[in-house]
Amino acid sequence: MIWLVVGLIVFLGVHSVRIVADNWRGATLARIGPGAWKGLYSLVSVLGLALIVWGYGQTRLAPLVLWTPPLGLRHAASLLTLVAFVLVVAAYVPRNALKVRLRHPMVLGVKAWALGHLLSNGSAADLLLFGGFLLWAVRLFRVSRQRDAGFPAPAPASPMATGLTVAIGIGAWAAFAFWAHAWLIGVSPLGR
Predict the structure, then answer these.
(1) Model confidence pLDDT, tens digit, residues 135-180
(2) What is each CA distance from 18 to 30, 35, 175, in whole angstroms?
(3) Alpha-carbon torsion 19, 141, 15, 41, what sign?
(4) CB–CB of 60/128 below 8 Å?
(5) What DSSP line would sit under 90-142, residue for residue?
(6) Closest CA to 57 of 13, 1, 113
């Protein structure tokens, strides 16, 4: 479980720089330049993600089960992950109503994903992984919304962009839920 914890510290740590050390981030960015900053940020992120994947995989070999979630919570998890996919897509499609209204749909998508997985999984590793991401997303969303107060309102939403966002999100969710989750993670979330 140590590699999972180290991976979470590295990955969530680098993604928390704006929360805990925004002045340091700005000074470092000015000193080394945006290209070097993005490269270093990406490298550390990939390292953290690799450690999370490796560590979580290792914990699945001998899981420490804390509770057994009721089977019905799988439906709630499916619904929350569907919402998460749509919100993540909303972060990338310009002028969709979700992004205009919520401002930070990616972070809300991480919240929905983490909560869904907490509801449907009950091991110590699940609590660390999904609970860690949920706490991080709650804090980041709050800080981001406070920072938004100083920025002008975004451009008006486009119904076409919003429809496209929802359609892509649902399609991506379906592909992941019915095929890719089992292939990548080894678990079929819909029991197929």
Answers:
(1) 999 999 999 988 888 788 788 899 999 999 999 999 999 999 999 9
(2) 15, 17, 33
(3) negative
(4) no
(5) HTTSTT-HHHHHHS-HHHHHHHHHHHHHHHH--BHHHHHHHHHHHHHHHHHHH
(6) 1
C-alpha 86/C-alpha 105 separation (Å) is: 9
Tokens of 191: 């029991």
Count CB-CB contacts under 10 A for residue 12: 19
Q: pTM of the predicted model, to two decimals?
A: 0.90
Instruction: For the chain, give percent helix, strand, coil, nearest 5.
Output: 75, 0, 25
Burial of 137 (0-12, 13-18, 19+ CB in 10 A): buried
Task: Name residues whose C-beta falls within 8 Å of residue 77's C-beta, 6 or more positions apart in sequence.
Answer: 116, 117, 119, 120, 189
Q: What's the CA gap between 35 and 157, in Å, rounded?
A: 31
d(CA 147, CA 19): 10
